[in-house]
Amino acid sequence: MPPSPAAIFRASVVLPTPDEPVIQMRCGGTRELGGRTRAPARLNSSVRQTSRQPHDAPAAGVTPAGDRIADQITAGPQGSAPVPMSILELAGVGVGSTPAAALADTTALAGAAERWGYHRFWVAEHHGLPAVASAAPPVLLAHLAAHTSRLRLGSGGVMLPNHAPLVVAEQFGTLAALHPGRIDLGLGRAPGTDQLTTFALRRRSGNGDPDDFPERLAELRHFLRRDFPAGHPFAAINATPMADIPVWLLGSSDFSARLAGRLGLPFAFAHHFAGAGGNTGIALDIYRSEFTPSDVLQEPWSMIGVTALAANTDAEARYQARAGALSMLLLRSGRLRQTPTPEQAAEYPYTQSELDLIAAIGSTEVVGTPDAVADGIHQLVKDFGVDEVMITTRVHDAATRLRSFELIAGQWT
Asked: Is 178 within 8 Å of 143 (Cβ atoms)?
């Protein structure tokens, strides 16, 4: 049997084993690898807010510019919209296109989203996927911020286990210093890729290790707020630039829902890929029941992600949506390719099990004419009682995607 990647790596270098500081949080469970499955993790009931001990830091919940973090989170809806609507972007790469073209299309979409009244524009972190060009959210966000002026920009999200918390703090501190009052930091717990790529990112397999996401989150927040407890070994480190920006927890299970609630942070649930079977309502109920008021929020603040696609006719919308569904089917079966065309999706020889998976994927999507899509999203907002909604669109070409966001905005705002 050939040696594992971990064995090869350990044979070539000596891994340091420094003592890790205690950040007053613990959890147990199996670390997710590959983004496919995760053993249920249990969050220790002792995980609650830690008291702030300022270390040359601004007042609690206040940015250096004086804007309260809560105000940046709980902004009102645009126009007559029932709740704020935002966009989650992956810089999709369709068959026949390139990552460079996809990133240019994302830049154009951000500018259009600002004109159309969308509230936030977040980009995801994914690695090693031919159909996705958003591998480096901080870099892409810097570019988008330079091409917009009012739109709130953020990560949806940064996969924190892939990064050193200090690096994330300084990257987003830099973004906030350049574009004050416009930057959100959404954090995820999954790797955003497969097991081998995860190992390349983290230089360790992680098999059997405890899930240290709460510790990483606590460390990151201390760096952002410059408030490590006195005597902590990292208290002497000044993340520069420092910025106490809004931190959101993103999740597709109850783990981040519980953690966000116990820390008094805003929570976004991935209804667009994890909402089947009632998961969305369960996670949101847990978040609200666990919520503890904090210096960030006094009340729960929640958002859901929704896959949505609008076209002039229902038939056209469903025809275009089939390409995105096939792309997800190929991804989930390990066939990594660029997003197929709708013609390729129509001609694909589906098995019955694949048709069942396509139906399951479509069960959480909202697809149709603009008014039908707006009504469908409004019903989800009502059903789940969320404060915001963030839509994403899986299609082959940029023009179809751009037109869909325009049509939805016209009905929503």
From this structure: no
Judge contact between 392 and 87, C-beta under 8 A: yes
Assign residue 34 a region: left if phi > 0, alpha if psi is -120 to 50, beta otherwise? left
Strands (E) located in 207-299: 247-251, 267-269
Distance CA 279, CA 24 (A): 29
- Report the sign of the C-alpha dihedral through residues 393, 338, 101, 315, in that order: negative
Architecture of domain 85-412: Alpha-Beta Barrel (3.20)
pTM of the model as a whole: 0.84
Mean pLDDT by 10 residues, the chain (413 residues): 36 29 28 33 45 40 56 80 95 96 98 96 95 96 98 95 94 97 95 77 55 93 95 94 95 94 98 89 97 97 98 97 93 90 96 92 94 97 97 96 98 86
State whether residue 5 is helix, strand or coil: helix
Calpha distance 238→223 (Å, rounded): 7
Which residue in 134, 73, 77 sits closest to 260, CA to CA?
Answer: 73
- C-alpha closest to that of 169 among 111, 130, 223: 223
At residue 146, what are phi and psi to the nearest 5 degrees?
-70, -15
Cβ-based burial of 394 (10 A; exposed 0-12, middle 13-18, buried ≥19)? buried
H helix and E strand count, the chain? 15, 11
Cα 135 off chain centre by: 12
Q: Hey, what are 149's tokens?
A: 């002026």
The 8 Å CB, 24+ separation contacts for 376-383 are 376/308, 377/85, 377/306, 377/308, 377/408, 377/412, 378/82, 380/271, 380/304, 380/306, 381/82, 381/83, 383/281
| Domain regions of the chain by residue span | 85-412
> Tokens 């594992």 label which residue?
4
